[in-house]
Design a protein that fits this description.
single chain; 410 residues; alpha/beta; Aspartate Aminotransferase, domain 1; Aspartate Aminotransferase, domain 2; 4-stranded antiparallel beta sheet; 14% strand; EC 2.8.1.7; transferase; PyrdxlP-dep_Trfase_major
């Protein structure tokens, strides 16, 4: 394995889970379903619940402190995205955020407008947008290659015209894992006057992107998959957020943070999300001069990707040499996130059950990517795939443990 930019021991020391006796010997390979929570997040959550669990933004000291802690989370997440705080919105979950956004777009789009969706996505960023057809809008599908699961830009070009006002894509699929060229997609969508919505749930754990470079108009991810609390975070271009119809109480229409999140999430969890930014800065500090970047968040992103590529290389090399499994998506670790789904003759969950005997925490199923598995010719309900997902805090020893377990059970 090539030199790692991040010392696994220093990184893992920032997560209480790795010190729990009950988890010793257990290698966590289900990070795509939710990562471990960083101490920086837990410390903020604990303080909020213990010291400021009151209605925020009031006139007394505890309430004012609570509001300041929440404001800080907006500011810190904006720093991570390289945008201003008015881009940031917190909601109960990414699924809920997408549901509300789709309702807002249903009232914003005009008769004759068209929407483009993919069948590579998690259903939360597909089904809600497809329902716009009920309102009379044309819904076009950007379909994956049935052999590779890839989204081809030429196929997108064939769908784009001046009727298209909204395109929704995943930054990377939670099954295929290939990193889609979002900046190029954004240029093509904007060229026809459309808005680009990016589902970043499966990508953000591997580095929060610079939205100025990415070009997306809306970017969404789940904080609990990015070392934080269980809620959804959206970055929305402020002028677009202001143009979308209010989805909250009528008297809150003038408050940007309330217009697109009618069911506000837990205040403590908003405040705790500032810890996500704290953690990324800690990652950048540990990386030191091993990587470069304009700010700590870009350096953390670079270090995390380099770490994951180094960790994924021996695993993909091993899997590539087997003739009894099919890697879904590219087998080049530089082209994908380390969310590696495998097609096997047995149902994915059955293989995962056997891997658990070896201390491998993984899972099998359709992972809400039913349309994608159907397109790939895989029964999503009775067979599914085995999914092995990890992040930068996974150790080389755990990769070795996984390979040995696969060798014994496949």
């Amino acid at each position: 394995m090539t030199t790692l930019p991040l010392d696994p021991q220093r990184i893992r020391a920032l997560f209480p889970a790795f010190a729990k006796p009950s988890l010793q010997g257990q290698a966590f390979f289900e990070n795509a379903g939710g990562s471990y929570t960083a101490s920086a997040v837990l410390n903020r959550l604990d303080h909020y619940y213990r010291a400021t669990k009151v209605q925020p933004y009031g006139v007394y000291a505890a309430s004012a402190e609570a509001g300041e802690a929440m404001n800080l989370a907006f500011e810190r997440m904006a720093q991570a995205f390289n945008v201003t705080p008015d881009w940031i919105h917190f909601g109960p979950s990414t699924s809920a955020n997408t549901y509300i956004l789709a309702h807002a777009f249903a009232d914003w789009l005009k008769p004759g407008d068209a929407v483009v969706v993919t069948n590579q996505d998690h259903e939360a960023n597909s089904g809600n947008w497809r329902r716009l057809a009920r309102h009379g809008f044309e819904v076009r599908e950007w379909s994956v290659d049935p052999r590779t699961g890839r989204l081809d830009l030429a196929a997108l070009d064939a769908l784009l015209d001046d009727k298209v006002k909204l395109v929704t894509v995943p930054h990377c699929s939670n099954v295929v894992g290939e990193i889609n060229p979002v900046a190029e997609i954004a240029r093509r969508v904007h060229a026809v006057g459309g808005v680009l919505v990016v589902d970043g749930v499966s990508y953000a754990p591997h580095g929060i992107p610079d939205l100025q470079e990415l070009g997306a108009d809306i970017y969404m991810f789940s904080a609990y998959k990015v070392y934080g609390p269980h809620q959804g975070i959206m970055a929305i271009r402020p002028e677009l957020a202001a143009a979308l119809p209010n989805q909250g109480h009528y008297f809150n229409e003038v408050k940007p943070r309330y217009r697109l999140t009618p069911a506000g999430p837990d205040h403590a969890q908003i405040a705790a999300s500032a810890g996500i930014a704290d953690y990324f800065e800690q990652v950048a500090e540990i990386a030191g001069d091993a990587v470069s970047g304009a700010d700590p968040f870009r350096r953390a992103h670079a270090a995390m990707r380099a770490q994951e590529i180094a960790l994924a290389t021996p695993l993909l090399d091993y899997l590539r040499d087997r003739n009894d499994v099919q890697i879904i998506g590219p087998d080049d670790p530089t082209l994908r996130a380390p969310t590696i789904a495998l097609r096997h003759r047995e149902p994915g969950v059955e293989v995962a059950r056997r891997l658990a005997r070896h201390g491998i925490m993984a899972s099998g199923g359709n992972f809400y990517a039913v349309r994608l598995l159907e397109a790939l010719g895989i029964d999503p309900n009775n067979h599914g795939v085995l999914r092995l997902s990890f992040v930068h805090y996974t150790s080389p020893e755990e990769i070795d443990q996984l390979i040995k377990a696969l060798d014994a059970e496949l």
